[in-house]
């Protein structure tokens, strides 16, 4: 089958996606090999081999990675005490949580929380405190995404990205990927969190058929306002505010009737939060 033909799902793809979703939704639950094999509906004697062959990581490594990811999000998105974050992420005590978290992110949970949050005493560009972001008007090519929808709080879109990644891994598609994108259709200021709509997707190279189980999302080309954030994802809201409050008005440009989106230029699984790079794209009218 060549790349122009429809790509069929790997026979075990559904099992892998169920397991990843289960880990994401139940980080404090029973995530033993036996429990995950039950979710996969496969013998434990075979499931750990299937998982490793499909993903390149063991079940235990997947559990540690997703637990750490959930904990990292909660540290910067909530005011929960570290003890509560540790318990929700499935750690028996804060000492074991701190050790595992530091191995994964290179800093303690407290330091990660401090690095991932703006200073609450001086974040407000609407009050005249300047915070500069690289901003430009750029001619962009159209992009085609293989994506899954997400409905709910935007910071929870990670669960959809996990599912997309599972499909790309199961169908051996990463060689045809050119970056990950989040498309956001609603304003959190106007739409209740449970009703927010978004897509989590991967840019496909030209000529590759849409993977089974994923939706095609087309992003328009033409002139875009592009703002670049270097730093943790917790700083994205301030960057979005800067785009709409300062960047666009000063440019004299008007947004087009197309949703804005974020392009993630590096991988949070192997990049320090301070080194993450995200581009915010707003398609422009008249492009």
TrEMBL record:
InterPro entries membership: AraC_E-bd, GyrI-like, Homeodomain-like_sf, HTH_AraC, HTH_AraC-typ_CS, Reg_factor_effector_dom_sf, SmbC-like, Tscrpt_reg_AraC-type_HTH
Domain of life: Bacteria
Cited Pfam families: GyrI-like (PF06445), HTH_18 (PF12833)
GO biological process: methylation
EC number(s) reported in the record: 2.1.1.-
RNA-binding as UniProt keyword: no
GO molecular function: DNA-binding transcription factor activity; methyltransferase activity; sequence-specific DNA binding
Enzyme class: transferase
Stretches assigned to coiled coil: none
Ranges of residues in domain HTH araC/xylS-type: 17-115
Keywords assigned: DNA-binding, Methyltransferase, Transcription, Transcription regulation, Transferase
PANTHER family reported for this sequence: TRANSCRIPTIONAL REGULATOR YGIV-RELATED
Protein name: Bifunctional transcriptional activator/DNA repair enzyme AdaA
Organism encoding this protein: Antarctobacter heliothermus
């Amino acid at each position: 089958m060549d790349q122009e033909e429809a790509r069929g799902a790997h026979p075990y793809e559904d099992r892998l996606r169920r397991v990843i979703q289960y880990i994401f939704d139940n980080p404090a639950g029973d995530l033993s090999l036996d429990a995950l094999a039950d979710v996969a509906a496969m013998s434990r004697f075979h499931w750990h081999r299937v998982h490793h062959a499909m993903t390149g990581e063991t079940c235990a490594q997947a559990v540690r990675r997703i637990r750490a990811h959930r904990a990292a999000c909660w540290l910067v998105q909530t005011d929960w005490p570290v003890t509560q974050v540790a318990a929700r992420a499935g750690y028996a005590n804060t000492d074991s949580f701190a050790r595992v978290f530091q191995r994964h992110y290179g800093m303690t949970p407290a330091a990660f929380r401090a690095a991932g949050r703006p200073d609450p005493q001086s974040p407000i560009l609407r009050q005249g405190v300047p915070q500069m972001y690289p901003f430009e008007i750029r001619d962009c090519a159209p992009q085609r995404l293989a994506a899954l929808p997400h409905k709910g709080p935007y910071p929870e879109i990670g669960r959809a990205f996990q599912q997309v990644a599972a499909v790309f891994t199961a169908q051996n598609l990463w060689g045809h990927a050119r970056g990950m994108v989040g498309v956001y259709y609603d304003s959190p200021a106007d739409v209740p969190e449970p009703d927010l709509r978004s897509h989590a997707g991967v840019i496909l190279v030209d000529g590759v058929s849409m993977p089974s189980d994923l939706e095609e999302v087309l992003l328009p080309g033409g002139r875009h306002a592009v703002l670049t954030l270097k730093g943790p994802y917790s700083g994205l809201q301030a960057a979005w505010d800067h785009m709409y409050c300062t960047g666009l008005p000063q440019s004299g440009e008007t947004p087009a009737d197309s949703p804005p989106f974020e392009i993630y230029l590096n991988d949070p699984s192997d990049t320090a939060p301070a080194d993450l790079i995200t581009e915010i794209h707003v398609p422009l009218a008249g492009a």
